Amino acid sequence: MTLSQALESGNPPEQLSGPLWVFSPNRDCDGGTAWWLGCEPEPVLIDCPPLTTTTLEALKQLASGRTALILLTSREGHGRVRALQDALGWPVLVQEQEAYLLPGLTSLDSFVDQHTTAAGLRLLWTPGPTPGSCVVFAPDPWNVLFCGRLLIPVAFVQLAPLPNRRTFYWPRQLRSLQKLRQWIPSDSRPALASGAPLGALRGEKLAPWDAWKLQVNQ
């Protein structure tokens, strides 16, 4: 039996605007959310979507023959990335403190504090939710911040840092948020794309930059 024969059919990703797509909740990631950005010359898949036949077909169509880069924002977003890589052959990039969690990947790279992809997306290490948590900033023309589990949807267009039983180090997470404020260009104000479950947004997928101002300034 092939991998595709063993998988559920699943739901297709939803196109939000142009090259930005969002996937349905991934049970392997506690209902977390994966994103696709079709940037050139190297599109990116941010965190692992549900591994279904529909997902694999959608990713092949979105890539259109290109080799995409899989960016993992924390161990909470790893999902079944090994099987995904086996099916697609795409390389994986993760912050160095979580690379050890992915033994056996055929193409795995890591970074320390910051990294810039071939398409100009910028990664920043933001420990707290997990030791190797990071965020991905896609500057203009996209202007989106993929914030992983650093910020969690808590209400309609409202995100907040939330401690839970899996939180690595809460005070460090708060410091990472302050570091993020200084790192993002002051005139950017990107939309926020969380890697957590999005149900609290009540149908919305993205939140505005100010959605977390009050929480950070408490």
Automatic annotation (TrEMBL):
Protein name: Lactamase
Record-linked InterPro entries: RibonucZ/Hydroxyglut_hydro (IPR036866)
Species, as recorded: Prochlorococcus marinus (strain MIT 9303)
Domain of life: Bacteria
